[in-house]
């Protein structure tokens, strides 16, 4: 498979643009070359209009980020939304701060395992995306992501590792990510440059290819380890977001 058929974009990157001009945003995403996207909410738009424009601009939803509390309280709604957008790969996007405790992590794992038990036979894949807390906090001697993705009675939660946060937490992303071989269908591709405070994303988050993450090695690992999509996520940019996404897209193509 050509690598261009495996590069996706997380629409969180263009959340502000979607609020202001949904059709223009999807057209520009298409014009960059993307054909695969991850959803991250409607950003104030009617879901029917979002779906219409995704179809118009030939953008296929390959993953969905779902708010954490909905896995606790709205599993039926998640399923309906997933069917509506034709995507059964769904991730808990971020464990809210009030649940970043031992009890919260245990409750999260229980909710995700229960969701997987109900939905796996329907073809769903339930996963967890990792921001910063997953890599240096531990529960029962395990990093948070490892604890939550450890199997229970043969049921496992998929991982969605994020190269930026792995590096920001002080780990070698190439070595660390190997623990998710065969169970990470989507990897978030984000670059990092050291020398700034962890919270200073205006400086330590840079365009792909401008920082320290070894994306060539990540792709080599991914091609041998079952990765289906390399998903570009750019939380913020120092220039026009579409220029940044285009630069990142072509950098990965060039690899």
From TrEMBL:
Keyword Isomerase listed: yes
Alphabetical UniProt keywords: Isomerase
InterPro entries registered for this protein in UniProt: IolE/XylAMocC-like (IPR050312), Xyl_isomerase-like_sf (IPR036237)
One annotated GO molecular function: isomerase activity
The keyword Chaperone belongs to this UniProt entry's keyword annotation: no
Name listed for the protein in its UniProt record: Sugar phosphate isomerase
Organism the protein comes from: Listeria seeligeri
